TrEMBL record, chains A, B, C, D, E, F:
Its EC number is 4.2.1.83. InterPro entries: GlcNAc_PI_deacetylase-related, LmbE-like_dom_sf. Gene3D superfamilies: LmbE-like. This is 4-oxalomesaconate hydratase.
Length: 262, 262, 262, 262, 262, 262
């Protein structure tokens, strides 16, 4: 896979003058098959383009709650799952990421100790430097908070040497919540505005893999423009000009660890 | 002025079977000349198209803080005020509203007892059934909260028979805060989604009166689409379809008074 | 049933000039048998008096947590359930509503997928235009938040064509939270003040059906007076007068959808 | 003055076995003449009945904003101030407190450095052990937050040895905010429920000194009943009984300092 | 057990002139074996020194989540539980309290109806005048909110005469949340600052019973100093002096019931 | 000035491969002379050690509110200002920063248009890449919020080409609020934890320049330890070990602008 408009991938960013570390790792935990594309496709593409590993844990296919058109077209549950899986795999491939499905059943996605335990295993296997997931509130879709709860709980359990299971314990990677569909109603405040301009074409291609939701292509393009305008307004004076920056917004549930204020 | 795409204006909505009341009155209090167009143009046009009276109190021309292009083009302060006034008057005319300027000086707009007293007089003169103004917070522009404070204080003072000045005291009209540029950073939550589809063409024409801020035409069109999608999602099932509803979002600082839950 | 002091019932409000629609439908989801009377009796009576259908889903009889006097009088669990059922049926009848019991067990009411699924069926059967339920927080009674969670989750599931079960999917009806016993401790803010003056006598009669809780009759009469005073103060000037308006307070967890600001 | 229904006043409560301390001192800072009666009359009476000193600093007479009936009866500003002063003095006397007027002008009450400085002098003179004032928010009456700001600022200034003026510096007395007219809209949460049953008759008599606001007598009696019910529910089990406890609610802007958890 | 540095224990504080009541009872509900020492050791020691009964319900030993050193030293699960139990018992003994273990399994501690029911029994047996537990939020350790939920739910259930089980129903004892490790990230605000100076030596000895966590001895000593400084600053003027007061901070989820403002 | 324990200063960090930019600039706006040392000394030292320019705008000397010992020792106002100035200059020198005094008068520090205008000039002169100031709330010291308001307003005004005055307009530099004395009571949440371990010795030396407040040396050393522990816990697993990281905490009122999530 090559990305014509993307920055050159780097191999294993050397840190602080030592030998090359293993490539950084990003773990994305989502409720439904399409979530990672609309909400974090730019962040995923940026990481992948830097040569980093990105693993997406899709807890369900969104087969009941986010496949209205397919149901109305008369598809069976099995067919819908297959369609959603195939679309998501193509989108993940476009972004340069690996996607794994847990088929836990959506609408409602029920948090269980077993599924949380599977996530602990993924954390320990992928040793993420960064975690992306849904925010804790979403009055329009209870599956998103359910995914959040399991992602957050598994991250804590995976840090404990006393929690059984394969793999090494993890550190405490920073977590970023991606933007819900109705941010103000979900207590979402953009705490990080990520510049995704250079990977925008990649995100757009990934969105276009989700054929059944064509009406969202324009919607999420507009959102990236809006967040780009806000990024510019938070970084420079108001010159009364149009901008062409594209951005994604995130929240941080934990403090940022910094070596420098910037 | 005629509005090809607008609903027929009604004259003085008769209420509850009695004799025709005087036409309803809306008062909009804004900090800068363009604010009422971008943020409340749809609400203004809807009211005007119903035959209601809309009065816009512009506390400043936005001559210092929102006229970057004119300053960079070498205009004088006087010229800039004249340009902003002329644009705003044309936009108000397109919407079917009256605009009044107070030239109180922006960046910063300083709340004073005198300016608040002038607003009390406008309240008593226009006897508003509805008030629109900026929300109480905006970390990007202190003039907006300053306008809010004076609009809110004057509304309370105008209700008191003991507060001196011409005109009759007013009731306690409902207040709607319109959407700031960065809603999540300003504590803005869409509590009312107003369907402005039928007056969208009028709002767009009014926006186009603000020639110097052409880059905002598309921006606020996108916003109306986004708020329209949210309106639909708060009113009907998720059918996986595109919508063509346009909307504006508002907050209510006071409880809604209702005869029926709906 | 006739209501001497009530407005004339209308049959199927015609909307926007078209043919008469089916009567509007209200669904009330509550934890205990008496909740709908104290907290929403006025709203229920208003809807019923307009000729609308009101269905009350009582998840439990409040047999353990809200029947202290009966327990202390030595009644058995079975007797207490029967008493509570009979009282609630009489109160519902007085208000003009239908009540259904789910006998899910209170103190604690445990949210389950099965009970939620039963609520999905009620949503699809009754096709509510309006939903009333408990607010999301109540530190004094965990059954209320439990009922809220199931009512809110079932409302989302019932909208999804992919969620199995009988009946048509529903739209996204507005939700109103009614007032808890200690509003400030439960994060309750009166966002809607509903004028129930014209049905007050009906609500009072319904309250008097709950014989075992006679001490609450005066308490909830006083509350209606207080909310009535606040309604007046949010609608008109402070003239230093007494009012005789009676009101109920509600919260809106979702934005109001409006055709007009008022 | 004798209080038939009140506890015996004590002289200078001896603390921790030492010699009698000077009587405790309470300072109440209010915007308008009647505020201390409706909102804190019970707390004032309780302190006075314990033999403590209570000083009420009334910043204005409430002559413009809270005297609608007098204005409509054609009284002059001077007459209205005289009426309010006389009523408040009688009410203070009934409660056993001293009231002082600053005649700073209401509607709006404007915070000034001079008025704040006068309050610093009162703090240093009265050396309060307890401070009562309005809460920081009140969207219905801007004079209340204005009084709050000055009361709070003066309390900090009065602690500083470097702030000039007569009298000794004060400690950091606890502050209690009393309940506004619309508590939920003013961010008010009852953090302290004070049992005023034993001085209720005194408070009622003080309320009855405010003849022009007779409609508020019942209103604030009902409020005391409601807060009394909540006090009982926060102190004992729900026995399904009526209570006859009367209470007032307060907020604490600063942490409670405790020798024992209770 | 004698405490050289503690106040003399009193036997059954006589209240309001009547016969001696039974000694007051404090119930502490915690997730892990060490929690009561670090977070509430001072409050426990103060109560014990006053001759009151203190019962600590430890839901788990903290065997998986808070025993990293033991796991890395190669201990077995059984050995770790035994070590934690022994340490906690010695610490409870030092404080003058009784500790009971429920061995419900930590990391994650899962709320169940059975465990909640066991807590109801403890409430009814111990008839607490005061309850201490974890706050409702803690993003760093999900076991703490889980313990909070069960402690809070059991407290409500234990008040209901209709909830089955042995023992008498309880009143509504005040609850105090103790301070989490990262207070600002857990929504913790110090609402009560408890002066523990006179029992500091006892708390320190109890901390030293937790040998494996020696690095926390200094940490929690520093915290007590910091809270002591804040206590002083909330009780007196800023004299620019050092203090030697030691304190613990607590939140109150319910209103304080007061006979006097202080 | 040389810093034995500090990293080598770099000269003008080259960015994005271009020619060396001018050294980065940090602007600190504080109310009183000592604030920048206790609250941001580590951030200042880190920037200075990287060869960056740091300018501290001290609005007052803290002569009335934070000089209790000097007043009690009988010093005059003039003497106290001179002492505070001299101490602050030595501390700034130790940190490698420039300090400027505005002598605006403390306790209370009153926001004025003139002082705000002076700050606009400093912004335009120093062209800050980073701004540090007090948070917006502090119930213990009104001067801190006053400084915040002016610092924030001046930052917006300085961005506007229409605001008159010398110098070039600025961009929109990120702002960091430093930690108040009682963080939880001031709405402070650590959103950024800055590792200051490598400049700790420098901060300690700067603190020791403030001779009159010796009791704060230990206090702020303990705070740095505590924030360091939290930094470690937000960056790695809980290994049950002691740490020797020192940190300062900050809030971000505006979103972080990022090229990468980390």
């Amino acid at each position: 896979m090559t990305h014509a408009n993307a920055p050159s991938p780097s191999v294993g960013p050397a840190r602080a003058g030592g030998p090359p570390s293993p490539p950084r790792s990003t773990l994305v935990v989502t409720a439904h098959a399409g979530d990672f594309v609309w909400r974090a496709g730019g962040a995923v593409a940026l990481a992948a383009c830097r040569g980093e590993k990105v693993t997406i844990a899709c807890l369900t296919f969104g087969e009941r709650g986010e496949s209205a058109q397919a149901w109305r077209a008369g598809k069976t549950l099995k067919e819908i799952k297959a369609i959603r899986r195939e679309e998501a795999e193509r989108a993940a491939d476009a972004l340069g990421a690996e996607v794994r499905f847990y088929d836990a059943g959506d609408y409602p996605l029920l948090p269980t100790a077993e599924l949380t335990d599977q996530l602990v295993a993924v954390y320990r296997e992928t040793q993420p430097d960064v975690v992306l997931t849904h925010p804790a509130e979403d009055p329009y879709n209870g599956d998103h908070p359910a995914a959040n709860r399991m992602a957050m709980e598994a991250r804590v359990l995976a840090q404990a040497v006393g929690y059984p299971g394969p793999g090494e314990i993890i550190g405490a990677p920073p977590v970023f919540y991606f933007e819900p569909h109705q941010p103000e109603m979900s207590g979402f405040r953009p705490e990080v505005l990520l510049d995704i301009t250079e990977v925008w074409d990649i995100k757009r291609k990934a969105m276009e893999c989700l054929a059944a939701q064509q009406h969202l292509w324009a919607y999420y393009t507009d959102l990236a423009v809006r967040r780009g305008v806000q990024l510019k307004r938070n970084a420079g004076p108001n010159l009364g000009l149009a901008y062409d920056t594209m951005a994604e917004a995130f929240m941080r549930p934990f403090p940022q660890i910094a070596k420098e204020l910037a």
